[in-house]
Amino acid sequence: MKHTLSILVENRPGALARVVSMFRRRSFNIDSLAVGPTERRDVSRITLRVDCADHALSQIEKQIHKLVDVLRVNELPPGESVERELALINVAAPPSRRAELLALAEAFRARVADLGPDAIVFEIVGAPGEVDAFEELVRPHGVKELVRTGRIGLARAAAPVPDGRPQYVLR
Amino acid sequence: MKHTLSILVENRPGALARVVSMFRRRSFNIDSLAVGPTERRDVSRITLRVDCADHALSQIEKQIHKLVDVLRVNELPPGESVERELALINVAAPPSRRAELLALAEAFRARVADLGPDAIVFEIVGAPGEVDAFEELVRPHGVKELVRTGRIGLARAAAPVPDGRPQYVLR
To answer: Are B45 and B35 in contact (CB under 8 A)?
Structure first.
């Protein structure tokens, strides 16, 4: 079963390498991973998708939590989280096909990031599954190149955040 | 100086760990990293931002290229690439502030991903700098949580792709 983990780490050399190696040593394959800045300059957030059994997940959560520089680990429970993914897709688009592709893009709220004489680079953001669906629809036109960020997520807006401060509480 | 690298790897256990460790061993700090699927099921793309001198970059490109499972490494040259980043931002939004925040979001083409009684989760995609600018503008309202994917990128639509096939050519 696939799980999305959100891990807050201090911005120190080696923090990402330690987390990635932990999964590697346990032979868990990471489907996707995104790491970037957070609301605090000294803290980064790693979001990753991993395929593993539920009991293995709780074990690895504990192991990650013990790593140097890790501040918090939690699973993003499906349904209680807002999850999104970004993709850039370069699709073959001769002038005769442009209108059809642009109509498809509008239906998926995909935007044109760049347009050349015979190709369009679309930018699409979607909840889980939406990027796959768009990719399937444009695939017959010829996908030249594609890049995806991997999924990121946050607790829903209605979820409580203790007295309005970021939840950097060790569990 | 900051550089964006795009690395194609075979989907095999340890491929990501090897790339990340390579930067770690050379004490290069990774600002952001995103890894996800590509147009080919057996290939993933790692996009990362790293701060290093130009001569150090070309050395590390060569080193990465020698790693097992690495198919291609290239820098995304600024100006010749389409680069985007995705962020989810949970902003404090009591009813009295909602209209103001929604107007700000519209100006930045940010979307409402979730709305609670006293918070809004915005989803924003931007070219380099745009996500930072939006974050700065909503910060005074109170950012409860924030997650960013790190930058991804592709060659521009007008760039040549050899006879329309994906560029999985070893350099």
So the answer is: yes
* Touching A: B residues 123-162, CB under 8 Å: 123, 125, 142-150, 152-159, 161
pLDDT tens per residue, range A97-115: 999 999 999 999 999 999 9
Q: What is the pLDDT of residue A168?
A: 37
Identify the structural domains of chain A with CATH numbers, from first to last: 2-75 (3.30.70.260), 82-152 (3.30.70.1150)
Q: What is the complex's ipTM, to 2 decimals?
A: 0.89
Helix (H) or strand (E) holding B154: strand B152-155
* Å between A25 CA and nearest CA of chain B: 9
- How does residue A166 score in pLDDT terms, banded at 50, 70 and 90? very low
HSE toward the beta carbon, residue B150, CA cutoff 13 A: 31
Tokens, residue A1? 């079963």
| Nearest chain A Cα distance for residue B99, angstroms | 16
Give the count of beta carbons closer than 10 Å to the beta carbon of residue B62: 11
Put simply, the answer to whether B149 touches A153 (Cβ < 8 Å) is no
Q: pLDDT class for A164, splitting at 50, 70, 90?
A: very low
Q: How far apart are CA A99 and CA A93, in angstroms?
A: 9
List, as ranges, residues 72-91 from A with C-beta within 8 Å of B: 82, 84-88, 90
Strand boundaries in A99-142, DSSP class E:
111-116, 119-126
